[in-house]
Design goal:
The chain is an alpha/beta fold and 517 residues long. It is built from 18 helices and 14 strands. Helix 13 runs parallel beside helix 16 and helix 15 runs antiparallel to helix 16.
Length: 517
């Protein structure tokens, strides 16, 4: 009996310890995610809190920083392998849950592959990165001595990287990496601007294609390759905004003739071919001029004026209107972080909002699947005295007239909040917190009890819930775009809660419903 009780107590203590460890891990994970979110958000908030002003060319001065939004920008953050192993991969989950799209892990030695393993996240959320000094990890070369010094290895790697010499991939290393990730990124360094005329364009392109094809073949297309194209600092000289913004030229001949753009254009066409995988080419820390010209070199247009058809959208993918872009307008948009386009009627650049005050905050620029159209994702802003933040000159949000559906509801509710007609039920809800709370609970309960075989009834009750939920949101100053932002942020998460119902919430809801009866 004594042994039995002892075993029972030991088992009970073990279970209690496991439960305590589980709670502690949950607590630390929650704190870690909050710290990661703070790190990303504080970078934005600090920039916004600094004194900012626009110069005569519309560029923001004094704020600094990119002010990236994790819910719409694909942020990739670099974490060193040692930190990942020391935290048993928790730091990876923290940053992904905080909104990052991918974690980039530098692979300096074979031992760093362990960091890929302990991360324990989906393969498409991890990137294994090798800079040019460590390409030899991927290289298979029988002539290379195992006792070769680090300096010799680095020197050979750099020379090979610049000259476009042949490169044979080590199959074993690639397959080890491919076990944990579907993406490998490789740094590729080119010469500086002063040596630009000496850049071996053809051999550089050949070498890049060779690496891409080998990785593709070894993994049966399961590995994507990101080639990070580096240039030296004097290749990042900042072009003056005036020279770009005042330009009305739409010609592409002078810019795409650059060796860097030739390399980007050739690799972009190669990785976009159906016979090869969909690879990516990245420019590291380019200035807006280099980024804009290289980006434009990857876009096709059959227009005689060489303009690019551009759709302007909200962050929830609502089309605001159709415009046109030139190389100069793309560069100008990247420089000032606003919607800048090419006006055919004015024969020059058009920065939206300079005259009307309805300016746009630029979030991202994308090219479509055919490579012949652009999408600018923006937040449409407007003067505080205007009732509508309008993209259209007819004072509507879009160029297709008044919105419908949920967007129309949001606009109507915002109007009621400012100036409601007598007897408005929406105004009553705005003024009576208790009534609004009770109706939200009531309509949610009715929706939950709808029969699954009555889709019309479900749609009707869902519409009721959306109405009362939007009243709550508009009163709190929360927009549809804010809700979309939160949904997109949650889609990045890799950890999930159990999602069980909360008894105290059910009791509170029952109390409200009981009172109404």
């Amino acid at each position: 009996n004594s042994n039995s009780n002892s075993n029972s107590n030991s088992s009970s203590n073990h279970e209690e310890e496991k439960e305590m460890q589980k709670k502690l891990k949950k607590k630390y994970m929650k704190q870690g995610v909050a710290m990661a979110q703070s790190y990303l958000q504080d970078s934005i908030d600090n920039n916004e809190s600094e004194s900012e002003s626009e110069n005569e060319n519309g560029m923001v001065e004094g704020g600094g920083g990119l002010q990236l939004d994790p819910s719409i920008i694909d942020i990739e953050i670099v974490l060193d392998a040692q930190s990942i192993v020391q935290t048993d991969g928790c730091i990876v989950s923290c940053f992904l849950d905080a909104g990052c799209d991918k974690i980039v892990i530098p692979i300096v030695s074979k031992d760093d592959i362990l960091a890929l393993d302990v991360s324990r996240v989906p393969k498409n959320r991890i990137v294994a990165h090798l800079d040019s000094n460590h390409w030899t990890l991927l290289e298979h070369s029988e002539s290379t001595s195992q006792n070769q010094s680090r300096s010799e290895t680095q020197s050979r790697s750099e020379n090979q990287n610049k000259s476009g010499a042949s490169f044979t991939v080590n199959e074993d290393i690639v397959k080890q990496i491919a076990t944990f990730t579907d993406t490998i990124s490789l740094s590729y360094h080119v010469l500086s601007r002063t040596e630009e005329s000496n850049i071996p364009v053809n051999s550089t392109i050949h070498n890049m294609k060779n690496i891409i094809q080998q990785l593709h073949n070894l993994t049966q297309g399961q590995i994507s390759t990101i080639l990070e194209l580096h240039t030296k600092p004097n290749h990042h000289q900042v072009d003056t905004t005036e020279s770009v913004y005042s330009s009305s030229s739409t010609s592409t001949s002078s810019t795409i003739a650059s060796p860097i753009c030739q390399i980007v254009q050739s690799i972009s066409q190669y990785t976009g071919e159906k016979s090869t995988f969909n690879g990516t080419l990245t420019l590291v820390d380019p200035n807006p001029h280099l980024l804009g010209t290289c980006y434009a070199s990857c876009i096709r247009t059959d227009r005689p004026d060489k303009l690019y058809t551009t759709v302007v959208c909200t962050r929830s993918n609502e089309a605001l209107g159709l415009v046109y872009s030139s190389i100069s307008s793309i560069i100008a948009a990247l420089q000032c972080g606003r919607g800048v386009y090419y006006s055919r009627s004015r024969g020059g650049l058009w920065r939206k909002g300079d005259t009307s005050g309805h300016y746009q905050t630029l979030h991202r620029i994308d090219v479509d699947c055919d490579g012949d159209a652009l999408r600018f994702t923006v937040t449409q802003n407007g003067p505080s005295h205007d009732t509508c933040k309008a993209f259209c000159h007819l004072k509507t949000l879009t160029c297709w007239g008044e919105p419908r559906g949920v967007r129309h509801l949001e606009t109507t509710l915002a109007s009621r909040l400012r100036d409601a007609p007598p007897g408005s039920y929406t105004k009553r809800l705005f003024d009576d917190e208790t009534l609004l709370r009770d109706k939200l609970v009531e309509e949610a309960q009715e929706l939950s009890e709808c029969a699954n075989d009555e889709p019309k009834h479900v749609a009707e009750e869902l519409a009721d819930v959306l109405y009362f939920a939007m009243v709550k949101a508009v009163k709190a100053g929360v927009s549809l775009d804010d809700a979309v932002q939160e949904l997109d942020r949650r889609a990045r998460k890799v950890t999930r809660r159990k999602g069980d119902s909360k008894a105290f919430r059910i009791e509170a809801g029952n109390a409200i419903l009981g009172k109404k009866e």
